[in-house]
Amino acid sequence: MTQLVQLRTRRPPSREPDALGAALEQALGDPSRVLTRPIDVIAYASDASVYRLVPRAVVRPRSEAEVQALFTLSHARNVPLTFRAAGTSLSGQAVTYGILVDVSTGWDRVEVLDDGLRVRTQPGAIGEHVNDVLRARARRIGPDPASIDACMMGGIVANNASGMCCGVVESSYHTLDSIRVVLPSGLVLDTADANAGELLRARAPALDAGLRELRQRILEDAALAQRIRSKYRIKNTTGYSINALLDYEQPIDILAHLLVGSEGTLGFISEVVLRTFHDAPAKRTGLLLFEDTAAAFEAVAPFAESGARAIELMDDACLRAVDAGAALGLDLATLPRTVAALLVEYQCENEAALAALREAEHTALARVSPLFEPIFEDAPARRAALWKLRKGLYPSAGATKRSGETVVIEDVAFPLARLPGATKALKALFVEHGYERALLFGHAKDGNCHFVITPSFNDGADITRYDIFMSALVDLVVAHDGSLKAEHGTGRNIAPFVEREWGADAYRLMRDLKALFDPKNLLNPGVIITSDPAAHVTDLKGLPTVDAEVDRCVECGFCEPVCPSRRLTTTPRQRIAVRRELARLADGGGDPVFRASLERDFAHSVVDTCAADGMCATVCPVHIDTGTLVKRLRSEGHGPRSRRAATWLARRFRWLEAMMVLGVRAGHVVEWLIGAPAIATITRLFERVLGTRLPKWSLAIPFVPRRRTHALPRAPEAVFFPSCMTRMMGRPRGEERSLTDVVRILAERAGVEVLVPDDATGACCGLTFGSKGYVDGHRLLVEQLVERMWTWSRAGAIPVVLDATSCLAGLLGATSLMSDDVRKRFAALRVVDLAAFVRDTLAPRLTLQRLDRRIVLHPTCASRKLDEGVAMRTVAELCAARVDVPVKLSCCGMAGDRGLFFPELSATAVANERGEVAALEGVAGHYANNLACEIGMTQSTAIPYASFLYLVEEASRTAP
Q: Cβ neighbours of residue 60 under 8 Å, at least 6 residues apart?
């Protein structure tokens, strides 16, 4: 036990941050892409696994030449190098004590080839983004891991990830067309080049000859060759893909396929071309409940024979972890504790083929005995809801773990004939070693079982128990001739056991293979190949108790693609990692200089630059909203005087609004006199003098609307409440009409009487106060607005339409702030988003002409959270011939006014979307559905964005 604790608490070697950092800056030629501050290295010290290694530096290269320079520096200084894309690795493949090379940005190009039959991608492209690009041609990539919305192609290929429907034959290995790699020697090879084999032989003769020798060694050992062939009949990512040495003759082809599944230990994959598959448009998904896993397994064969493409197992613990009862309309408490489920999906070319498959489905159902009539769904939304249960299982386990526990996920595979017996023995193993709360699920059709256990790694006894369990697990898998790792990669957790699964001859082959590519063992050492028998219990990630929000997080990284600050400071996962590190340092003392640096940078990197838009909660399977945590931290940072001042301003919001209107008008005057750049210079000067951030003026800021008088409607059908921002700056540049004017115009054309309250001035949803952590001011404004809406709507008799979806989302999220009476009134109100109002009330009564133009929509994050973006797109498609929503759609980072204080937040948040939109040809308009977001997009893309209502107005104006 003592030895294990010592291994667990082993510290990295001396960092030498200045010397190494300076060398890295020289190698990249850009200090901004070399990160050595404590807050930066802590942010990257974890991936989705149970391991934590603090890197000496994090670097962000932009080219293969810079990667070559990093290899040279690594060898010269004898410092390990590890490449990382999304960091969703489950076995510790993406963490290091050396140099961590982050390729999640600047490496995301996707190119469709042969009309979609092939696709070329870089390692930083998100897997689902690649599918989104291919979807226009009804194609998809083969791998379909549950994390595909977050994981990137570098990890998908390097780990040979598969997934629910991928099986064995559609993996990266079997769909690889060509690969481009930078070897540790610096040699760049593109296997698509006709002379790539000759280049390998000429520039790396030892590697070429070594690959030939390894192949010959296998061919001369019939037992080893048979062992390799049999191991890959089921899913297997334990060790290297040494089947390449049998499957291919030429060294260049062997090299290409060895890189698949090599987990970043043999070279850097800078580009890959994969063959794609037809994306069957017709799908049918069903969920069946059985008395126990044995009964579920008996049903696998009938459904597999009926043509089911996916058959996923979930045991009782899984169903409870994801609250499947709510989705199914069942009370799980009334079911046996042994209950198990199968998620079954059929995929076909068209509805007719799917109808034919229903006969096969009925035949399969006749051979099985589910507890209830099975639920089968054709509708995409319902199907997605069923799949969400399955895809969120691993992170959802975070909701079941106790404070201080971590989440370990492993995936084993067995020959199908042995699956029931092996699974039964596996469940007994959980009980024997004290992991009774384990979750068991997986790809039943492929004999692939995932399991989740929640040990604590905060003391030696728990680590020893885990060590003993892992040894027993290895014995069980080997006894059933299975795979210790089916699809998650060997990583660090299984590296000590590769030889036990494969045998001495195969493992010796793998060690020789590693030495051929990386003789100094500097490329991701400790992954796949290790000489440390206790590597799996070394550098474990102990989780201190911190916050309710933080303690549930398993650091899976699902949140990162939607985070606006991901390219500027930190992501939700990283914010939590830093918060945990401060807790560790507080518990154990630690380096006071290191801790002081973390605390100094915490405010800017963790608190100030968080948009607090809540998008992280929409993709987090356990709905962790890091924005809520950040708003609480902001609130805790305010002193009594600051709180009183905020409440005083909230009580006088009418006055504050008038001051803001004067400020906007004055800004436009000053801009006319001296120009926007001069204003920016003056603002920066004042920031230095005052020592605080100030809002920045930009050419994206609209004008104050002109005041117009209108007769009050006699029998209004709705109330239109213009948000405070719309009232203060709701007239776009170059437009005479404000957004409120356009609403009135459309309502008049549709013959709909709409009330725009004369006393709207001074009313606000309080979102800005809430975002800044001023709870009392937020509560005051929310309750005042609800009371006004109650009056305007005649006690809820007519709907209240809000032009800012963020205000609607803010009100829905602020019910806990309301008093009981106010909450009851709010519940009785019909509060409607403007896009939905236009779609459901105005558009059916308008005569719209579809304009012959291409437009781009930016559905805001609030509208996506409330699923209101669909309404805007529906209306836009009535008004324009072609409507594009960017694949790389992102939150604009404005977060109300935060993008004015931190314009760099908005600029980096939309960097990918900006590039995609700029590349589109023939676009005649760019539209959103929130004024703050329109400002942010205009400011950050230099492309004018306006409310989609201006499009609707034009389409209704030009109608015959």
A: 28, 33, 35, 101, 102, 103, 105, 106
Cβ atoms 390, 314 nearer than 8 A: yes
- The Cα 81–Cα 918 span in angstroms is 35
Cβ distance 142 to 119 under 8 Å?
no
Query: Using CA atoms, how far apart are residues 567 and 437, in angstroms rounded to an integer?
Result: 38
**Last residue in a domain, options 457, 486, 515:** 486
Supply the DSSP string of 782-834, one letter for each residue: HHHHHHHHHHHTTTTTS-EEES-HHHHHHHHTTGGGS-HHHHHHHHHS-EEEH
678 by DSSP, 3-state: which? helix
* Residue 770 is assigned to a structural domain of this protein: yes
Q: Tell how many helices (H) and how many strands (E) occur in the chain.
A: 45, 26
In the numeric block, which tokens belong to residue 127? 């897997």
Burial of 773 (0-12, 13-18, 19+ CB in 10 A): buried
d(CA 412, CA 951): 54
Which CATH number does the domain housing residue 407 bear? 3.40.462.40
Q: pLDDT tens digits, residue range 424-441?
A: 999 999 999 999 999 999
The residues with which 523 forms a beta bridge, in sequence order, are: 81
What is the distance between the alpha carbons of residues 174 and 162, in angstroms, rounded to a whole number? 11
Residue 43 resides in a domain: no
Q: What angle do CA 384, 171, 226 make, to 5 degrees?
A: 140
Tokens coding 255: 């090299």
Question: What's the domain range around 742?
Answer: 718-957
The number of domains in the chain is 2
For 685-735, the pLDDT digits (tens) are 999 998 899 999 999 999 999 888 777 888 999 999 999 999 999 999 989
Q: Tell me the C-alpha distance between 950 and 853, whole Å.
A: 14
* Residue 497, domain member (yes or no): no
> If we measure between CA atoms, which residue out of 766, 358, 809 comes closest to residue 614?
809
Task: State how far the Cα of 356 lies from the Cα of 376, in Å rounded to an integer.
Answer: 15
